[in-house]
Amino acid sequence: MFKKALISIGLLAFSLGTQAEVKITLSSKIKNAHEKAIKKDLKVLSEFKFSEEGSEDTLYYFGIESLTNQDLEEWLDARVNWIIPETEMDKLKIVEGEAATYPDNGVPVVETPDLKPQGKGVVVMSNIGTALYFAGKQSKKHMGLKIKTSMFNRDKVMIDSPRTGIIMIGEGLFMRRLQINRQNDDSVANSLGRLQTMFHEARHSDGHGKHLGFFHAVCPEGHDYAGLNACDRNMNGPYSIGASLMKEFIKNCEECTEGETEVMKLVWIDSLNRVIKDTETIAENTNVEIKALEVDIALKETVLSLASTEAERIKITAELVELKKQLKELASKEGLLQVVPSPILDPAPESIIR
Predict the structure, then answer these.
(1) Which of 8-12, 276-280, 311-315 has the largest mean confidence?
(2) pLDDT at residue 329 in the model
(3) How many other C-beta atoms lie within 10 A of the C-beta of residue 125?
(4) Can you give the pLDDT at residue 210?
(5) From CA 296, how far away is CA 170, in angstroms rounded?
(6) CA–CA separation, 234 and 237 (whole Å)
(7) Once rounded to an integer, what is the mean pLDDT over residues 75-94?
(8) In a 10 Å sphere around its CB, with 0-12 CB exposed, 13-18 middle and 19+ buried, how is residue 339 labelled?
């Protein structure tokens, strides 16, 4: 379940003993060059001049009254507390504590991708704190993580809430071909691009019950990322947060060149396009054939989550795609398909009950 939650959350402190404006602790295993870049990014945020007022949507999605450095730093500080490198994943010391009581408010449905990303993927960022909280809620155990903070020390971080805020970074965050300015690594625009990703991941530290973690949805037919777990089925999720922030950076960046601004606009549009504004659902019904297909799909999804080989996963995924196609065609024939607007979700986080 931990790995499945990671997929659905998406792939995006400072300390080493020191504190920045945003109090984030960095693992000592992060490369020096990457540590330097992250510190610069947070400095760019603390010094960025928002000369224009934030749009109504931006303020609403962030839940802030004004667009200032302090407001954004406080928002990020509440949701990101630790950063670890992807290279530590195989060495992570996950702590499974005693039995714990979690809120009895349901858990999110983790949508299963219909397709695998083409080519070799790279990790940019992922919110593993929320994935561990979700895994703990499923197993009713108090989960934790030991994070290397110096040559001799590991901090034991117990996951009491999705707001524990443990973020994993990968090589993709610093890849030149993924930067806004590929010629100048130190460009302010590159820092703004990484900050947009960090704020996206920070939104995964929010939510409770069935929308815990604001997990990503499978993009619908006809979408650029159709079949992949790369969209949001709500209006204020990670992609809306990222798009809103990038829009404000574009409006206010005095140091950004015309070329950088054009690339930033593409990033903004890409995030906007990943927000599913409405969803086709099946109306309440007593149709026996539809009910049978829904049961088959639920069983296949359970089997898929337990599959141990790639060949099994590919086979079951193909079967799921076919079953979902049959279900949609039957519901359409019976006049039971309906379009439901995507909601604004409550970002208040839940936590273990003491």
Answers:
(1) 276-280
(2) 94
(3) 25
(4) 95
(5) 37
(6) 6
(7) 90
(8) exposed
Query: 54 CB contacts (<8 Å, ≥6 apart)?
Result: 64, 66, 67, 248
- Give pTM, 2 decimals: 0.88
335: left (phi over 0), alpha (psi -120 to 50) or beta: left
Cβ atoms of 202 and 41 within 8 Å: the answer is no
pLDDT of residue 119: 64
pLDDT one-digit tens code per residue, 260-290: 999 999 999 999 999 999 988 899 999 999 9
Tell me how many degrees the CA angle 71-8-340 measures, rounded to the nearest 5: 85
Confidence (pLDDT) at 306: 81
Q: In whole angstroms, what is the distance from residue 317 CA to residue 323 CA?
A: 10
Q: Give the whole-angstrom CA distance, residue 235 versus residue 240.
A: 7
From residue 293, alpha-carbon distances to 111, 157, 288, 289, 333 in Å are: 17, 43, 9, 6, 15
**Bridge partners of residue 219, in order along the sequence:** 226
What's the order of all strands across the beta sheet hosting 141-148?
93-99, 141-148, 154-158
Q: Can you tell me the distance from the alpha carbon of 22 to that of 73, in angstroms, rounded to the nearest whole number?
A: 6
Tokens representing residue 277 in the block: 């504004």
Mean pLDDT over 159-170 rounds to 96
Count Cα neighbours of 226 within 13 Å in the Cβ-side half-sphere.
6
Confidence of residue 238 (pLDDT cuts 50, 70, 90): very high
Buried b (16+ CB within 10 A) or exposed e, 204-238: bbbbbeebbbbbbbbbeeeeebebbbbbbbbbbbb
- The residues, ordered by sequence, that sit 6+ positions from 120 with a Cβ below 8 Å of its Cβ are none
Intra-chain end-to-end CA distance of the chain, in Å: 24
∠ at Cα 197 (191, 199), nearest 5°? Answer: 100
Q: What CA–CA distance (Å, rounded) separates 342 from 330?
A: 23
In sequence order, the β-bridge partners of residue 101 are: 353
Instruction: State the DSSP code for 288.
Output: H
